[in-house]
Amino acid sequence: MSHLKIQSINCQYNQQIVLHNLDLQLAHNEILCLLGASGCGKTTLLKAIAGLQPISQGKILLQGQDLTSVPVEQRNIGFIFQDYALFPHLTVAQNIQFGLDKKSADEKQRILYDMLNLVHLSGLENRYPHQLSGGQQQRVAIARALACQPQLLLLDEPFSNIDSQIRYQMIDEIKQILKQQGISAIFVTHSKEEAFAFADKIALMKDGKIIQSGETDKLYYQPNCKFVAEFLGSCNYIDCYIDEKNRLHSLFGVQQLNDEINLANGKTAKKNTALQWLIRPHHIHIVPNLQGNGLILHKQFLGQYYQYQIQIVGSATLTEIKVQSNQFLSIGQKVQLSYQDTHPILWQTDL
């Protein structure tokens, strides 16, 4: 049984539907990212799960219980807001213990020190939020949410206020905490880098709909449409076709495919039909070659790698290439491009 199951839910504002017939599942101890541009419905879906946004259709099931008519305070769901929503007039200890009123004094103290140890804030329990760094404030918010032993944790843009130099350290720490505690979580972000680093699965949204969901690497390497492919990274689309002998013809030459190939939308690729081949720029191998099939038109140094814009010899196509920084090449230099892929991602040219 799924830990969380969302069945065909709709949400609307002022009679305008903002979430369209959404279905989603979350397993126990799994972290799911709702990814997408601003205004696509990510936070609305998060609030609907929490009970902060009413739904006009469908069901939300948590461990088999229908939450549709359950009040917010009875859902046993933790929510961490973008600004952490710590109480400025309360100490770290008081913030963490907020919501534990039904516990005995001894139990509250035990939970407090368990949480302080868990989030590495021991010794800071008497400080106030303004005396903490952004990362420490986030740890307090995590501790407060986990102190109530929620069945599900929701996080709205949890890393946006963290300095970029420590952001991925915090992502790793919080992911370890959630895994250690066996907590299922859903978080919202517009950053694909955060999604890849923190999530087990991604649900990519657009205009109130989930376009594709699944394991993070599956969405990157097996996108079901160009929107998904382009949202998750730079793309090259190489003209190609498959002949009757199941050979792929492209600017990289001819290569034999082992199996029948399906298009990204699941349909069978037709023989001798114009197709486009998705290739990520950093997957293409590039070497200097005076007789090569590419000419460097432009380059950018992006820290970990150079990004080259290359014209294919004899074609008007411009292909964006990313290579590691040890490949120092010059504008105007001829290069040879090569790439092998026995399971290419293909689209019809009119998609």
From TrEMBL:
Keyword rRNA processing: no
UniProtKB keywords: ATP-binding, Cell membrane, Ion transport, Iron, Iron transport, Membrane, Nucleotide-binding, Transport
Xref: Gene3D superfamilies: 2.40.50.100, P-loop containing nucleotide triphosphate hydrolases
Record-level Gene Ontology MF annotations: ABC-type ferric iron transporter activity; ATP binding; ATP hydrolysis activity
Biological process according to GO: quaternary ammonium group transport
Any one annotated GO CC term: ATP-binding cassette (ABC) transporter complex
CDD domains cross-referenced by the UniProt entry: ABC_Carb_Solutes_like (cd03259)
Signal sequence extent: none
PROSITE patterns: ABC_TRANSPORTER_1, ABC_TRANSPORTER_2
Domain ABC transporter, residue spans: 4-232
This protein's name: Iron(III) transport system ATP-binding protein
